[in-house]
Design goal:
The protein has 437 residues and is of the alpha/beta class. Helix content is 50%, strand content 9%. The protein has helices spanning 7-12, 18-27, 31-40, 80-92, 108-117, 126-134, 143-156, 169-178, 187-199, 204-207, 209-219, 240-258, 273-286, 307-320, 340-361, 368-379, 382-388, 392-401, 418-426; strands spanning 43-44, 59-60, 66-71, 97-100, 121-124, 160-163, 222-225, 263-267, 292-295, 325-327. Helix 12 (240-258) links the parallel strand 7 and strand 8.
């Protein structure tokens, strides 16, 4: 029987949980250091007590940058089998988190199966599910109804939930006064904005925030404070709406910690490269060094079909400057629901960004695999290179598609390979190109 409600409460009581032990081993840090960071909120370990298949991960200060994969069914794409294949893909390529963003029909059957099989953290946005779960139109949903969906997701075993509690009337006033090129692009944020405007009521997740926290505390669910007013184009970044909501999120972070509920704070979606560093530092300051979870940021708005690349550029810069958790973006972003290949491309791009940032941040051991790859290239050891690659199958497929006559080279340089030439000279051998041996 657990004598604590949440990982944060346990850390503050000096209790080392099984999840803390797992994270400390994965990150190669001491349990004392990890426990102190969980206690002060700079690290979160999302771990619902009902998620039995979870292999716990830590998100936050001094830890490896984690990535999240979004999936789920919609009204236009209703194949549960396809979405479960995406789950398998995410787990295979090492995603630490999966968010089920299903917004059609009774989603709990899919979500329960997902939670039962996934070692990755599971996240949801209860706001997305409210209409389908309750079978009510938006205007008919009450504040109590929203809380019912939060409790249902918590009971099922969801590890973290995006709750858009910061878009209160003050933040909406700033947004409306300022004006925007793209207005609100957060799906959950737009639904709450519409509900607030149609009913005249305060955001129910803000007004009943203490009740939300009690539910999350009961099941040890981490709250991911959603950025309903995140910029949806680079021209809207760092505006009054975004900053006013961020100020509210800083206050909500402290209120959650007062109840021992772990917190992550979500950040910008579209942002020019020169603004990213300042935004990361601003968020960490205003939100008291809580773990920061970013979507992208996408550094340009003109690359549909390639937004996994624009996102990876922004994600690498963001994580190198303090972001702790990257939400992947696929080539299908802004165009359609991603297919399996899109999911793979998005995961790989995010993995590259996260790993590059970890090297820049000096995360212990981050360079080890790069050094192994360099040693293998020095030896021209293709099998070892494939083992070190993020995507071994693609690397092997490219190499074998145009195989070299000499396996100690590749088909680009052939016998003029710089590595081969240098190795031969240092070994005291003669380099010849015109004579067949």
């Amino acid at each position: 029987m657990r004598n604590y409600s949440t990982q944060m409460e346990a850390a503050r009581k000096g209790i080392l949980t099984p999840e803390m032990k797992t994270v400390a081993e994965k990150e190669n840090i001491s349990t004392d250091v990890l426990m102190s960071r969980v206690a002060d909120g700079s690290v979160a370990i999302p771990a619902n007590k009902n998620h039995k298949s979870l292999s716990a991960e830590g998100i936050g200060q001094g830890l490896r940058t984690k990535i999240n994969v979004n999936l789920g069914i919609s009204g236009d794409c209703r194949s549960y089998d396809t979405e479960m294949k995406k789950v398998d893909m995410a787990i295979r390529f090492g995603a630490e988190a999966i968010m089920d963003l299903s917004n059609y029909g009774k989603t709990n059957t899919f979500r329960r199966e997902l939670i039962a099989k996934s070692p990755a953290m599971i996240g949801t946005v209860p706001m997305y599910d409210a209409i389908g779960y309750l079978e009510k139109d938006l205007l008919e949903i009450t504040a109590e109804d929203f809380l019912k969906v939060v409790r249902a997701h918590a009971e099922e075993g969801v590890d973290f939930m995006t709750i858009h509690a910061g878009i209160n009337k003050r933040a909406v006033e700033a947004f409306k006064r300022e004006g925007r090129r793209m207005n609100i692009v957060s799906r959950g944020g737009s639904l709450l904005f519409a509900w607030m405007e149609m009913t005249g009521n305060e955001n129910p997740f803000y007004e009943h925030y203490d009740e939300v926290l009690e539910i999350l505390r009961e099941f040890d669910v981490t709250i991911s404070l959603g950025d309903a007013l995140r910029p949806g184009c680079i021209d809207d970044s760092t505006d009054a709406g975004q900053i006013s909501e961020l100020i509210e999120l800083g206050n909500l972070t402290k209120r959650a910690w007062e109840k021992d509920v772990q917190v992550m704070v979500e950040g910008p979606g579209h942002m020019a490269m020169n603004e990213i560093e300042a935004n990361m530092k601003l968020q960490k300051r205003i939100c008291h060094n809580a773990p920061f979870y970013v979507l992208g940021p996408l550094v340009t708005d003109i690359a549909p079909g390639y937004d996994h690349i624009t996102s990876a550029i922004g994600g690498a810069i963001a994580a190198a400057n303090g972001a702790d958790f990257l939400c992947y973006v696929t080539p299908a972003e802004h165009l359609r629901l991603p297919d399996l290949e899109d999911v793979k491309e998005g995961i790989i791009a995010s993995r590259i960004a996260a790993h590059a940032a970890d090297i820049a941040k000096g995360i212990p051991g981050a360079r080890d695999i790069d050094n192994k790859m360099s040693d293998a290239r020095h030896r021209v050891d293709w099998e070892e290179m494939f083992r070190c690659a993020i995507d071994p199958e693609k690397a092997r497929r490219y190499f074998e598609s145009t195989p070299p006559a000499d396996r100690h080279t590749c088909s680009m340089c052939g016998k003029m390979c710089a590595v081969r030439t240098t190795n031969m000279i240092l070994e005291g051998k003669k380099v010849e190109f015109c004579t067949e041996k």
